[in-house]
TrEMBL record:
Protein name: Aminotransferase
EC number: 2.6.1.-
Cofactors required: pyridoxal 5'-phosphate
Species of origin: Alkalithermobacter paradoxus
A molecular function GO annotation: transaminase activity
Domain of life: Bacteria
Keyword set, alphabetical order: Aminotransferase, Pyridoxal phosphate, Transferase
TM regions (residue ranges): none
Family of this protein: Belongs to the class-I pyridoxal-phosphate-dependent aminotransferase family.
Any one Pfam family match given in the protein's UniProt record, by short name: Aminotran_1_2
Upper taxonomic lineage: Bacteria, Bacillati, Bacillota, Clostridia, Peptostreptococcales
Length: 394
């Protein structure tokens, strides 16, 4: 018999859509995939070369649970120079991707029925991760006029005696919104006052298009002490399949996270870690080139979406998504169930375009598209979305 815990877990919408798209493409269908959050660039040669060197140097044995010392030292240097936060090497734990880093942190912090505040819209896996470790996800409504960024008042209104941690995805998946320093300071103040941890998911922090990016932990010593910074190499280094992430936290938390990881997986692949090391020391220019390309694609996507009268969207300042408001189409789709699922299923069936229904992020009046794809796919995909909506209006 399966555990009762699994009965409350919702399968990943994004993985499910990706699998369906793969099946349709294998059948020869002309699918434009605007759903997946995966860079279309290859892993930089510097990362691949370092991994190959490690293989032939036989660096394939067990290593330290929190990760190889060389990579952790480079991450310490990166966080100091780029994020203005000073960590020691023993405060960094390398993991099998950012998802694993988050799970390690939640296991280390949450007891049964402890509550985690999750602002809406949220990344699809946050609530399921909380439930899997015995915690309770508490969803916090935010406002469109504030780009769905959570405010101190919204946090305080949701706090109970069981509140233990706040999720903060910055830049946001799915909206691409970025918090200012003042906004982060006000959030930190509330969390310090109420003894609440901040899980700062900064996996998209290198993909920003405007103002200087501010890490939560850099706000103050108090902020650093209550923050578990989550980051990794999937987005910035286009290393999704290498499964390499990390957490940075205070020494007590880092030791706990390392203890959890030691019993569950020992440590991440040494070869993946050497690839990450190679990226950090030799591939920063390639990362900046990727960001410039994303910015051009962002501009292309929003310029086209702005011409579709029935749609509105959150203007993305970072990451590589557009969160699109489809509420004006409610009457035209005439569904009694999920608006966003109906929209995405019909769009895929009629126009062969894959998008993610907003219900996956807790917001059924929205869909998410990704521009981590070619210009041709962006143009053709949004053209087909426009045609789909025009047909609804007939």
């Amino acid at each position: 018999m399966l555990s009762k815990r699994l009965s409350s877990i919702t399968p990943s919408f994004t993985i499910g859509i990706s699998s369906k798209v793969s099946q349709l493409k294998k059948q020869g269908q002309d699918i434009i995939d605007l759903s997946i959050g995966e860079p279309d660039f290859s892993t930089p040669d510097a990362g691949k070369d370092e991994a190959v060197k490690a293989i032939f140097a036989n660096k394939t044995k067990y290593d330290l649970v929190p990760g190889i010392i060389e990579l952790r030292n480079e991450i310490v240097d990166k966080l100091y120079k780029e994020n203005n936060v000073k960590y020691d090497t023993d405060e960094i734990v390398i993991s099998n991707g950012a998802k694993h880093a988050i799970t390690n942190a939640l296991i280390s912090i949450l007891d049964y029925n402890d509550e985690a505040l999750i602002p809406k819209p949220y990344w699809v896996s946050y609530p399921e991760m909380v439930k899997l470790v015995g915690g309770v996800p508490v969803f916090v409504d935010t406002k469109k006029e504030n780009q769905f960024k959570i405010t101190p008042h919204e946090i305080e209104s949701s706090i109970t005696p069981n509140t233990k941690i706040l999720f903060l995805c910055n830049p946001s998946n799915p909206t691409g919104a970025i918090y200012t320093k003042d906004e982060l300071q006000s959030i930190v103040d509330v969390c310090v006052k109420n003894n609440i941890y901040i899980l700062a998911d900064e996996i998209y922090e290198s993909i920003c298009y405007g103002n200087e990016y501010i890490s939560v932990a850099s706000i103050s010593n108090h902020a650093k002490d209550i923050t578990i910074t989550i980051n990794g190499f999937s987005k910035s280094a286009s290393m999704t399949g290498w499964r390499l992430g990390y957490s940075a936290s205070n020494k007590t938390l880092a030791k706990a996270i390392s203890t959890v990881q030691g019993h569950l997986v020992s440590h991440p692949s040494t070869i993946s870690q050497w690839a990450g090391y190679g990226f950090l020391i030799n591939a920063k220019d390639e990362m900046r080139q990727m960001v410039e390309m994303y910015k051009k694609r962002r501009n292309l996507a929003v310029s086209m979406l702005s011409k579709i009268k029935d749609l509105d969207y959150i203007y993305p300042q970072g990451a590589f998504y557009v969160f699109i408001d489809i509420s004006n189409l409610k009457d035209k789709l005439k569904t009694t169930e999920s608006l966003s699922i109906q929209f995405c299923e019909s769009l895929l069936q009629e126009e062969k375009v894959a998008a993610v229904p907003g219900i996956a992020f807790g917001m059924d009046d929205y869909i998410r598209i990704s521009y981590a794809c070619s210009n041709d796919d962006i143009v053709e995909g949004i053209h087909r979305i426009d045609r789909f909506i025009n047909n609804l209006n007939k």
